[in-house]
Design goal:
This protein has 574 residues and is an all-alpha fold. Helix content is 76%, strand content 0%. Mean pLDDT is 84; it is low at 14-46.
């Protein structure tokens, strides 16, 4: 009887422990405490049965904890697997639209706030890859309200998350000025500038990339980057040992400088030119590309800025880079020289004297396509400055090289650039015009002008170049082919040159008759009283009336008619 009462008492005690688990420390502690009480003789009864019952209770509690932990572990594993899979799928363009239609943005957004850092980072990486693909997906990131969340997290998360978040901001900002403005509006620029003060170079690089994509769109966005204090920190990045960081820093400075003279002055005032100049002979080709690009964007705005670049003593060292194996290094060096020479004859003379022009002419023979464009324009800018500089282009065999470019290139904008440069060379004096005409360029310019397939810009430039050269050209043999093909608005300039030269050159008059030029002039139908008719009359006055009449159209029929009416005996008697 006593044993039954003891069993009921133990059962009630166990039930009370199950109903109030907070009062029991843990199953393991409960078992230990019970064993202690039994050892002290606090309870009576068979000990083996009591120990077995308590052990079963402890095992049940432990199994329940494990099941709960497994549920959470499985949930965490599933979240991680989901974001990793999305990030992997987002690397393939064919999956992007399907992911977007499946609502992936709204699913990734809460994972940006996940308690597990690795899930946060991978979710940000997936978002960045999606936004990087198209502007529609970048807009979806903005509409989902993800940007403020990213910007807020940048200040507190670890370096891996910061790199992923900066990647998302960059991917959104790159598509348009409107999307870049959305990044600015949510405080993204200030957060990215703070990242430039991080110790980790990877975080700095990601932040600089994002700032560059914001600044490149327009002057207003670039000014927002400047106002956030980014420029001094970008110049400091140029001094870091990591090449990748140097490259993106130089690229971002280039993007800031390109918009306005004021922004370029801001970059110059921080001492950027001196640091950029020190890197022009760096063996890394990608770095040199960005360095010369930044110097070009600074130089293009004004004489003062171009002189500051020249004063950094980058020439003639930069000219040597025209032999660099990397084609884009060579192109950017040529672009830099183009931006310098266009400002004044003095700056052009600096480039010519250091061998820059001769090297550019050689460079034009070694490249094709758009790589030629800055070199073609550079020759035109030099020639436009003065007669002597234009003659330097001629003596360096720049005209045959431009003629080669004009014949080899098929793109209209390339042809237009070459035509413009030819016009700048030939516009100065008869000697300059003769050099252009001797290269056979006048018929080519006329052909481009009258060709219906030529772009409007190419036709305008061809017409302008033709007129400017014709007004100076006195080499009649090179002008004569134009008498046969030129439309009336060009023909009057050609005939006008003949009317100026023939009265003073007897040899030219004889050659003009024997070559058929006079006969061609008589065939021209000009309106009475027009300027063209005045030029024709001036030419005819250079020759006897009989010769002019002989070469006039229909004169052979007049002679034949006289022959038919001629009676030998009667005419002799008369």
């Amino acid at each position: 009887m006593t044993e039954l009462v003891a069993r009921k008492h133990r059962r009630r005690s166990l039930l009370r422990g199950a109903r109030h688990p907070a009062s029991c420390p843990s199953p393991r502690q409960h078992c230990n405490n019970t064993d202690t009480r039994v050892a002290a003789g606090e309870e009576s009864g068979p000990q083996p049965e009591r120990k077995q019952h308590i052990s079963v209770f402890c095992i049940g509690e432990t199994m329940s904890q494990r099941q709960i932990i497994q549920v959470f572990e499985q949930y965490q594993k599933s979240r991680m697997q989901f974001v990793q899979t999305i990030a992997d799928l987002a690397t393939r363009p064919q999956n992007i639209e399907l992911l977007h239609n499946a609502g992936v943005m709204s699913l990734l957004r809460p994972l940006m706030l996940d308690v597990v850092p690795s899930i946060q980072q991978t979710a940000a990486l997936a978002l960045g890859r999606l936004a990087d693909h198209s502007d529609d997906l970048a807009e979806a990131v903005v509409k989902e309200g993800i940007l403020p969340q990213l910007v807020h997290s940048l200040a507190s998360q670890n370096r891996f998350y910061k790199k992923a978040a900066a990647f998302v901001l960059r991917a959104v900002a790159k598509h348009s000025a409107e999307l870049a403005d959305a990044v600015v509006s949510c405080g993204g620029v200030d957060a990215l500038v703070l990242c430039l003060e991080e110790f980790d170079s990877g975080v700095k690089e990601a932040a600089v990339w994002a700032l560059g994509f914001i600044a490149r769109h327009n002057a207003l966005l670039s000014q927002s980057v400047v106002d956030a204090g980014a420029v001094p920190l970008l110049v400091m990045c140029l001094r870091e040992p990591e090449l990748a960081l140097k490259r993106v820093a130089a690229s971002t400075l280039s993007d800031i400088s390109k918009h306005t003279p004021e922004l370029a002055h801001t970059v110059v005032d921080t001492g950027a030119v001196a640091h950029l100049a020190q890197m022009i002979l760096n063996p890394d080709a990608k770095l040199k590309r960005q360095v010369f690009s930044a110097l070009s964007q600074i130089s293009k705005h004004s004489v003062i800025l171009a002189e500051m670049v020249i004063e950094a003593e980058i020439f003639p060292a930069a000219v040597a880079c025209l032999k660099d194996p990397d084609e884009y290094v060579r192109k950017n060096v040529t672009t830099l020289m183009r931006e310098v020479v266009k400002h004044s004859p003095e700056l052009s003379l600096v480039i010519v004297n250091c061998g820059g022009m001769a090297s550019v002419i050689d460079y034009l023979g070694d490249c094709h396509g758009n790589l030629r464009l800055p070199g073609i324009m550079m020759l035109g800018y030099v020639a436009a400055q003065s007669e002597s500089l234009a003659m330097a282009v001629i003596l360096s065999r720049g005209v045959p090289q431009l003629a080669l470019c004009l014949s080899e290139e098929s793109e209209h904008h390339m042809k237009a650039a070459a035509v413009w440069s030819v016009g700048q060379i030939g516009q100065h004096t008869p000697e300059h015009a003769k050099a252009v005409a001797a290269a056979g360029l006048l018929p080519k310019l006329l052909q481009l002008y009258v060709d219906a397939t030529s772009s409007e810009d190419l036709q305008i430039k061809s017409k302008k170049a033709l007129k400017s050269i014709l007004h100076k050209c006195t080499d009649l043999p090179t002008l004569q082919p134009l008498l046969y093909d030129a439309p009336s608005n060009i023909l009057k300039h050609v005939v006008g040159q003949f009317s100026k030269v023939l009265p003073n050159d007897s040899k030219a008059r004889r050659s003009f008759v024997t070559s058929g030029g006079l006969a061609k002039v008589q065939e021209i139908r000009a309106e009475p009283g027009s300027q063209l008719q005045e030029y024709i009359n001036a030419i005819n006055n250079c020759f006897p009336v009989e010769i002019v009449r002989y070469y006039s159209p229909g004169y052979s029929e007049v002679l034949l008619e006289r022959l038919e009416n001629y009676v030998p005996g009667l005419n002799e008697t008369c």
